[in-house]
């Protein structure tokens, strides 16, 4: 039988359900998974009808990290994944995580089972991380004599304190989702994280898709920036929204006291 696709993607009601599909390996990252995840993110980027992404994993775990057995069988994977081409800003290992942060729409990760190493760095690059309380987490690269290099340094600093980031990195220890929530690495805990993610996604999809994309863009540009830079970006982003079709629809819906709200058109900005 031919191999199943490593990543599934289905769009329903403006929500892209992206699912890692290697359950027998706890969605371990092999070369095919790297390629399919990045290709799926690029596909989502091109579809302006999509307003939110829910990222999850089939089977018992979200993602157990890099598949070292696959690397041992084909050592060339290391060069393919970790060497950056001169005309790119990131290597494939970094892109598999950072591509979700770089999408113009919000990405919600649904975490269950094990979320180790590369899987952990993937969720850190998403906008919201909703986890089952029993989920197991780890920045596990230290176990293999490595450091987190799948965009972890770009994402950890915006979510938690440096001492926490260093301790979890330098020990590589496992911790549960409750502890991750206390550290700021998990957004919410839920017995049914997919249902909670869908609830959040539907709420986001009720807003102007241009304004939501603008908000994500603005936060990415200004979070921890100096005050004057943040104010400049506010003005520039707002100027791209004022008077546009979706902004006019939002105004009408906000002022209307009767009837169904007018539907928004597909995203045009950002």
From TrEMBL:
Q: PROSITE patterns annotated for this entry?
A: ENOYL_COA_HYDRATASE (PS00166)
Q: Pfam family of this protein, just one?
A: ECH_1
**Alphabetical keyword list:** Fatty acid metabolism, Isomerase, Lipid metabolism
InterPro entries, A to Z: ClpP/crotonase-like_dom_sf, Ech1-like, Enoyl-CoA_hyd/isom_CS, Enoyl-CoA_hydra/iso, Enoyl-CoA_hydra_C
Which GO MF term does the entry hold, naming one? isomerase activity
Q: In which pathway does it act?
A: Lipid metabolism; fatty acid beta-oxidation
Give the GO terms filed under biological process for this record.
fatty acid beta-oxidation
User: Would the keyword Phosphoprotein turn up in this protein's UniProt record?
Assistant: no
Family membership, please give it.
Belongs to the enoyl-CoA hydratase/isomerase family.
Classification via NCBIfam families = PRK07509.1
Name of the protein described by the UniProt record: Enoyl-CoA hydratase
């Amino acid at each position: 039988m031919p191999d199943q696709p490593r990543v599934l993607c289905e769009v329903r009601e403006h929500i892209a359900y992206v699912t890692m599909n290697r359950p027998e390996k706890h969605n371990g990252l092999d070369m095919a998974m790297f390629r399919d995840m990045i290709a799926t993110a690029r596909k989502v980027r091109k579809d302006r009808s999509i307003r939110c992404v829910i990222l999850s994993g089939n089977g018992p775990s979200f993602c157990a990290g890099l598949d070292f057995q696959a690397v041992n069988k084909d050592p060339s994977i290391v060069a393919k994944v970790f060497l950056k081409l001169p005309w790119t800003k990131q290597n494939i290992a970094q892109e598999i995580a950072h591509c979700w942060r770089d999408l113009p729409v919000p990405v919600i990760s649904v975490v269950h089972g094990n979320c180790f190493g590369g899987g952990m760095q993937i969720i850190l690059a998403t906008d919201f991380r909703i986890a089952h309380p029993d989920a197991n987490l780890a920045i596990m690269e230290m176990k293999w004599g490595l450091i987190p290099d799948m965009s972890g340094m770009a994402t950890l600093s915006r979510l938690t304190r440096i001492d926490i980031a260093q301790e979890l990195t330098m020990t590589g220890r496992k911790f549960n989702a409750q502890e991750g929530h206390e550290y700021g690495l998990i957004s919410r805990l839920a017995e049914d994280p997919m249902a909670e993610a869908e609830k959040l996604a539907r709420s986001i999809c009720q807003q102007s898709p241009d304004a939501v994309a603008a908000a994500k863009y603005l936060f990415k540009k200004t979070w921890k920036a100096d005050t004057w830079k943040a104010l400049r970006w506010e003005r520039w982003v707002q100027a791209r929204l004022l008077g546009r079709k979706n902004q006019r629809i939002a105004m009408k819906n906000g002022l209307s006291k009767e009837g169904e709200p007018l539907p928004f058109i597909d995203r045009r900005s950002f």
